[in-house]
Amino acid sequence: MLMNYAKTAVLLAALTAILVALGAAVGGQTGLVMAFAIALVMNVVSLWKSDTIVLRMFKAQEVNEATAPELIGIVRDLARKADLPMPHVYVMNNPQPNAFATGRSPSHAALCASTGLLEALGREELSGVLSHELAHVKNRDTLTMAIAATIGGAVSMFAQYLQLGLLFGGGRSNDRGGLGILGTLAAVIIAPMAAALVQMAISRSREYQADRLGAMICGNPLWLASALRKINVLARQIENPEAEAIPAAAHMFIINPLNGHGFDNLFSTHPNVENRVAALEELAREMGVSGSAGMNDGPSVSAPAIGGSRPGGVWIGGQNYTKPPSPWG
Questions:
Q1: 279-316 pLDDT, tens digit each
Q2: Alpha carbon distance 124, 231 (integer Å)
Q3: Cβ distance 191 to 22 under 8 Å?
Q4: Residue ranges of the domains in the chain?
Q5: pTM attached to this predicted model
């Protein structure tokens, strides 16, 4: 565990170094100092406000016992099994089935599920997904992933600034960054790719760990395995505009929310789903759990509609996003 924390600290330092180097590229020595200051402030802000920042990014709305009793009931039961405080629960109005966890510590954690996830999964599969997210909370991955998302977003911002400088002739001046056109072009291409590689390294090992612990929390690895296969298929078919606009946060989700149309998807922040399923099936054999992780029922997912107070709907921001009769309650 100590080695894992050390590795993560090194990777976060590398991500910060990329941001500082880009600052130097944009503004020379002044830019380097400014980028270092920005990185320092962003790390401190992320430490205390990472959950709020990320949830606002995806326009998530908090739900409670009155507005989403079934969902709250599942999370409460799983949090008890995981020996964790009850986290805040959020729902984002998004047809792509996905979920993430955030927060600086187990006592300040938040779980967020999309309306598409609630529509697509059965109760047992949903329990598997939420257990995976609680495993991230228990392993204290959520703070690391939120900081990586924040700094990665800043790297993308600086790269875009450099790109605009190229378009309007800023790359010709050596007074600010000293890079010239070729150097600036290299920075525009290499920096986001390097940041993506660092985020990928942070995320991949943690996903396997969260899969294993999450399976133990819910009690059946095959529930999570079935959910992973199902939402992986659907996530490729349904675009997530918010995630596409903030690719630096893709590693926070249980399944890669980017559908492959953009340049940012050359490097996946998530392990191969079939490998994850195989590991869960092996764990199921170790635990003596029988069955398979196949999709028995073909899912039918449609974008949530805004309607009246139909039973089974999820209340978000004072409006009821209805869905088919709840498959998990």
A1: 999 999 999 987 665 554 444 333 333 233 333 444 33
A2: 14
A3: yes
A4: 2-322
A5: 0.70
